C-alpha cells in the first residue's frame, strides 16, 4: 500500500477530470462515473481500516516530499488514530452522497465534478501534516462548496453560499496569520505539524494565547460554535440534500479536528489555560442553545441543522475534559454525529422530494403510507437522542463521564439538556410521522431501493457501533492518550497566564 | 563596471527592437491595407524583445549576441544613465509579456479594430513599452523622468484612442491633467535632490546623503515630492483618483496595459530609487535607510490607506472596468506591503506578486473584453448568468482570475499574497498584516459578487449571447493555465524573483 493516502485523496480529483471530459448530454453516464470514482477511495479506506496499526501513536502511511524547498513547504501526509477516523467517515459518506444526488437534473456535469473536487479537498484536510498544505486544502474546499450551494441550492441559495464563504474565509485569514507566526517562531522554520508541536512553547504566554484564540476562531466558525454559527442554518437549509449531508457529516468535523490537531498539538499549554471557557463552557452553551433553537423550528431541515450545533457541543465539552474518556468520547461523537446527521438529512431529503416542502406542521401520520421510512426515521431519531444500544449513547456517555471529573457543573447542565433533545425529537416524530394522516399525503410511495441504499449502510453502522464501539475506540485510543499526555505535560511545563 | 557605448548597444537590443518596430509600423501604416499585419509585426517585436531580454547566444560559440538574463551581465550603460542588472531584466520580461498580451488583446478587440488608425496605436504601445523598459533600468533621475514621461505621454494618447467617445475624451483629459501635476511636483522634488546632492546619479545621491550632505528633513521633503510622481504611476492613495475614470474610458487592452505594465514599472522605479538609492544593504538581506529618512513609516501608512480605500471603493461599483480599477488600486496597496519591510524577502515577494498580478489582472480584463466584444456591455448586469449563455469558458476563466485576485489557493494570487504577508509577519508588522487580512476579506466580497452574477444568477434573456473566438480563447488559456500552475508549483518563478533582487551598485 504505497502512497495509499495520496491515492485516496487524489483519485476523486482524477474522477472529476474524467467527468469533465464526458459529454454533458449523457447525465446517466456522468452519474455512474462519479459514483465509480468514489469507490476506490472507499475501498482503500476499508483496507486502511484493516491494516492500521492501533498500538502506535506515530503517524502512519506517511508520504513526504519537498514541495517548495526554499520555504520548507512539504507535501506531507499521514494519519494517526484521530485523522483516520475522519478519513474513513469521509470516504464512507461520499459514495452515499453521490447516490443521493442521482436526482440532480441541472448542470449534472458541473455538479459531480465539483463534488469530486470537494472530496479531494476534505480528505486532504484530514491527511495533511504540513500546515501550509492543510491550509491549502482547507481553502480549496471552499470553492466547490460555494458553487454547490450557490448553483444547486434552494431559493435563498445565493445568500447562503456567500455567507458560508465569507464566514469560513474570515476564519482562514486568522489561521493564515497564526500559521505564519508559528512558522517564523520555529527554528528551523517549518510548516510540518509534528515538528511545530513543541515549537509553540517558544512564545511567551500572551502570544501563545493570542495564537490559540486566532486558530480557535478559525475552527469554531466551522464547528460551528456560538456566536459564529449563523451561517450554518442558512447553508444547511439552502444546500441540496447530499451537500447538507457533507456539510454536517464532514465539514463540521473539520472544526473540532483542527482544534485537536493544531491547537492541542502545537499549543498545549494555551490549550490547557483556555479550554474551560473556549471549549467546555462554550460547548455546554452550544448544547443548550442548539437544542432550544431546534425546539423552536418549523422547518424540518432547520431543526436538524440546529440539532447539529447542539450535538457538536458534546464534542467540545468532551475535548475540554483532558481525560481519556472525554477525548475518546469526543472523537467517537464526531464519527457518530457524522453518520447520524447524515441519516437525518437524507431522511429529510426523502420527504422533501415527495412533498416539496419541509414544514413540520404540514405533515402528519406519515407512518401509514410509509412504514419503512418511518422505521428508519425512528432509528435515526432515537440514535440522535442517545438511546442505549445505538452509537451516540456510547459517545455521549463517555463525554459526560470524562467531563464529570473536570467540570462537574457544566456536565450537569449538559446531561440535563438531553431532555431538551428528546423533547424536540419526540415532538417532531409525533407531529410528522404519527397522528392523523393528512389526506394529501395518503398516496406517498415508501422509500425506494436507491434511497435505501444510502440509508441502510448508515443504519447498520449506527447499530454496530452501539454495541461494539471498540471498532472506532481502538483506532483512536492510542493517539488520543498521547495527545492528552502532551497537553498535560505542556500545561505542567508551560507558564500559564493565570 | 562602466560598459562602453559599444557594449551599451548590445545590451540595449530589446529597446532597439521595440523602437525599430515602432518606427517601422508608422512608416508602413500608409501602405499596408490589412492592419492586422501591423499588429502581427508588433507582436513579433514584443516576442523578439522578450527573447533579447533573456539573451541570445551565438550557436557553436561562446559569444553572446545579445546580453540579457542568461548572461547575467551587470553594469552601467550610456555613461551611467541606465543600469543593467537582474532587477531590470526581470521587469523587462514582465513588460515584454504585458506588451505582448496587450497587442494580442488589441487584435481581438472590437474597440481597437476597424478604426483605421491601428498603425499609430501599435506604434504607441511599443513606444510606451520602451518607456517601461527604461523605467526599470534608469539609474539617474533625469533618465527616470524621461522614461516616466515617455510612458505617460503615450498613455494619454492611448487612453483617448476612441476619439468619438465622450468617456474616452474625459478620461484622457483627466489623465493628462493629473499626470501633468504629478510630474511637475516630482520634477520639483528631483530638483531638490539635485541641489542637495549635486548629481542626478542615484549612486552619487546616495553617497552624498550618506555623508550627511543635507539635513534629513530637507531630504525627506524632497523624497515626498518625488513620491507624488511615482505614486501617481502605481495609483497609490492619495494619487489614485485618476484610475477609475481612466480605466473606464480607455479601450480595454489599454486599461489592462496601464493596470499591469505601467503600475509594475512604477514599482520598479520606486524600488530602485528607495532601496539602492536611499538605503544601505546589510547582512542577511536586511536594509537600513539612510540616517533620518523614515520613508518606510510613511509608505506603511500609504500602503494601508491604498488597500483600504481601493477595496472600499470597489464595493459599490457596477461597471466592471471601474471595479477592477479600484481593485488594482488595492493591489498596489498589497504590493507596498513588501516595500515597507526593508528586507530582500519583501522585495522578492513583490517581484513574484508582479508576475501573478500580470496573469490574473490581464486575464480579468481579457474576459471583460470578450464580453464587451459580444454584447457591448461592461456593467454588472451584462454578466448575469454568463456561464449559462454560451460564455462558459470566459466565465470559468473569470472565476479563476477573480479567485486568484482574492488570494484563494491553489491559485497564483494566493502564493503571491502568502509571500507578501509572510515578509510582513517575519518583520513583525502585525498591524499591517491585520489590515491586509481584513482587506482581503472585503475584496473577496466584491469578487464573489461578480462570480455570483456569472454563475448563480440566471440570464433574463436580454444580455446577449457571448461567443469566444479562437484568438481570444488562446489569450484566456495563455493566462489562466499559468494562474493555476503557479498556484501548484511556483519554485522556478520564485527562484527567478530571488535571483532578480540584485542591484548593480558599481
- Please tell me what the overall shape of chain B is: globular
- Rounded to an integer in angstroms, the radius of gyration calculated over CA atoms of chain B is 22 Å
Mean pLDDT of chain A: 91
Mean pLDDT of chain B: 91
**Helix amount of chain A, in percent?**
over 70%
The poorly predicted ranges of chain A are none
- Sheet with most strands of chain A: 2 strands, antiparallel
Describe this structure in words.
The complex is a heterodimer of chains A (498) and B (506). Chain A has a domain of 224 residues. Chain A contains 19 helices and two strands. Chain A has a two-stranded antiparallel sheet. In chain A, a hairpin with a 4-residue loop joins strand 1 and strand 2. Chain B is globular. Chain B has a domain of 213 residues. In chain B, the strands form three sheets. Chain B has a two-stranded antiparallel sheet. A two-stranded antiparallel ribbon of chain B has the order 3-4. Chain B is mostly helical. Chain B has 19 helices and six strands. The interface between A and B is medium-sized, with 31 and 29 residues.
Index terms:
A: 498 residues, mainly alpha, 2 strands, 74% helix, B: mainly alpha, two-stranded antiparallel ribbon, 19 helices
SSE arrangement:
The complex is a heterodimer of chains A (498) and B (506).
Chain A: H1 4-21, H2 27-51, E1 60-68, E2 73-79, H3 81-100, H4 108-127, H5 131-140, H6 142-152, H7 157-185, H8 193-196, H9 205-222, H10 231-238, H11 241-266, H12 268-295, H13 300-319, H14 324-355, H15 371-385, H16 391-406, H17 408-432, H18 449-467, H19 470-493
Helix pairs in contact in A: 1-2, 1-4, 2-3, 2-4, 3-4, 3-11, 3-14, 3-18, 3-19, 4-5, 4-6, 5-7, 6-7, 7-9, 7-10, 9-11, 9-12, 10-11, 10-13, 11-12, 11-13, 11-14, 12-13, 12-17, 12-19, 13-14, 13-16, 13-17, 14-15, 14-16, 14-18, 14-19, 15-17, 15-18, 16-17, 16-18
Chain B: H1 5-11, H2 13-28, H3 35-54, E1 56-57, E2 64-66, E3 75-77, E4 82-84, H4 86-107, H5 118-137, H6 141-159, H7 166-197, H8 202-210, H9 216-234, H10 242-249, H11 252-277, E5 279-281, E6 287-289, H12 295-315, H13 320-340, H14 344-375, H15 392-406, H16 412-426, H17 430-456, H18 470-488, H19 491-500
Antiparallel strand pairs in B: 1-2, 3-4, 5-6
